[in-house]
């Protein structure tokens, strides 16, 4: 589903953030990316949906080459769900409208259909009763669950997560991880940057460890955690 082949990325002429990175995520696979701060984890997943350009190698998403000038990037990005550390909900829109906006504007869904889908997903993340609220009225954990629901509303072929729990108070981390665990178990293709090794241990198929722009380990979970 996601192929990353010999990718090199520079920020400016002198700083190489990714060095010959090669890995892949198969359909239905959950890959956790970990490593020290500044090692290039966030950069790697931003390159997958071309939020950052690459200078060498190739990335192929569901058969489409991402780093090709002919690729329709808005269309490609609309098919990959992305959840960031900061929830990035539209602050002036009610939760329900946050869920409908891209479905209507990007996918051209009718309002009733977008609304039905949005409400179903809100129920799934346990927030149906908060539909009429504004983001600022929700806790960080609730906002992040809305962000996940909003990404799922687009019927993504894969989900990318960039430290989805690191901006949350400790007591809210598990409510977000629980939603992610459910998604993983339902067979969603996921690439997750996180320090939550409990999550990795529960649902990851593989764990990638990055250091200074290189993928230094890419192992099946059992090998990574040293389990039988
Ligand atoms: P991680 O997610 O592992 O913390 P990042 O991918 O965010 O690492 O960053 C990798 C390196 O690239 C860091 O040294 C960071 O300072 C640098 N970096 C990230 N984004 C930019 C940018 N837009 N311009 C210049 N350097 C950047
Ligand atoms: P994250 O790791 O969640 O991407 P960061 O705090 O590392 O968040 O980066 C926030 C923003 O600043 C990102 O858009 C990143 O590309 C940019 N950035 C990070 N490091 C640098 C840097 N050394 N120079 C310029 N921009 C940077």
TrEMBL record:
<protein>
    <submittedName>
        <fullName>Glutamine transport ATP-binding protein GlnQ</fullName>
    </submittedName>
</protein>
<dbReference type="InterPro" id="IPR003439">
    <property type="entry name" value="ABC_transporter-like_ATP-bd"/>
</dbReference>
<keyword id="KW-0029">Amino-acid transport</keyword>
<dbReference type="GO" id="GO:0016887">
    <property type="term" value="F:ATP hydrolysis activity"/>
</dbReference>
<dbReference type="GO" id="GO:0015424">
    <property type="term" value="F:ABC-type amino acid transporter activity"/>
</dbReference>
<dbReference type="InterPro" id="IPR017871">
    <property type="entry name" value="ABC_transporter-like_CS"/>
</dbReference>
<comment type="function">
    <text>Involved in beta-(1--&gt;2)glucan export. Transmembrane domains (TMD) form a pore in the inner membrane and the ATP-binding domain (NBD) is responsible for energy generation.</text>
</comment>
<keyword id="KW-0547">Nucleotide-binding</keyword>
<keyword id="KW-0472">Membrane</keyword>
<dbReference type="InterPro" id="IPR030679">
    <property type="entry name" value="ABC_ATPase_HisP-typ"/>
</dbReference>
<keyword id="KW-1003">Cell membrane</keyword>
<dbReference type="InterPro" id="IPR050086">
    <property type="entry name" value="MetN_ABC_transporter-like"/>
</dbReference>
<keyword id="KW-0067">ATP-binding</keyword>
<dbReference type="InterPro" id="IPR027417">
    <property type="entry name" value="P-loop_NTPase"/>
</dbReference>
<dbReference type="GO" id="GO:0005524">
    <property type="term" value="F:ATP binding"/>
</dbReference>
<dbReference type="InterPro" id="IPR003593">
    <property type="entry name" value="AAA+_ATPase"/>
</dbReference>
<feature type="domain" description="ABC transporter">
    <location>
        <begin position="2"/>
        <end position="228"/>
    </location>
</feature>
<dbReference type="GO" id="GO:0005886">
    <property type="term" value="C:plasma membrane"/>
</dbReference>
<comment type="similarity">
    <text>Belongs to the ABC transporter superfamily.</text>
</comment>
<keyword id="KW-0813">Transport</keyword>
<dbReference type="Pfam" id="PF00005">
    <property type="entry name" value="ABC_tran"/>
</dbReference>
């Amino acid at each position: 589903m996601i192929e990353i082949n010999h990718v090199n990325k520079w920020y400016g002429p002198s700083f190489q953030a990714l060095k010959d990175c090669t890995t892949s995520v198969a359909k239905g696979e959950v890959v956790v990316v970990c490593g020290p701060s500044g090692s290039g984890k966030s950069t790697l997943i931003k390159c997958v949906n071309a939020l950052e350009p690459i200078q060498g190698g190739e990335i192929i998403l569901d058969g489409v080459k991402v780093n090709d000038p002919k690729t329709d990037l808005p269309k490609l990005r609309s098919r990959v769900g992305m959840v960031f550390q900061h929830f990035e909900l539209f602050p002036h829109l009610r939760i329900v409208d946050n869920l409908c906006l891209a479905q209507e504007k990007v996918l051209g869904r009718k309002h009733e259909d977008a609304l039905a889908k949005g409400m179903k997903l809100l129920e799934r993340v346990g927030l149906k009763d908060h539909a009429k609220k504004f983001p600022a009225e929700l806790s960080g954990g609730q906002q992040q669950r809305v962000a996940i629901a909003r990404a799922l509303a687009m019927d993504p072929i894969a989900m990318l997560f960039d430290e989805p729990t690191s901006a949350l108070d400790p007591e809210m981390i598990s409510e977000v991880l629980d939603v992610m665990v459910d998604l993983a178990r339902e067979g969603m293709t996921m690439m997750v940057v996180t320090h939550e090794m409990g999550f990795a241990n529960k649902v990851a198929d593989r764990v990638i460890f990055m250091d200074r722009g290189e993928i230094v380990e890419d192992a099946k979970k059992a090998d990574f955690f040293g389990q039988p």
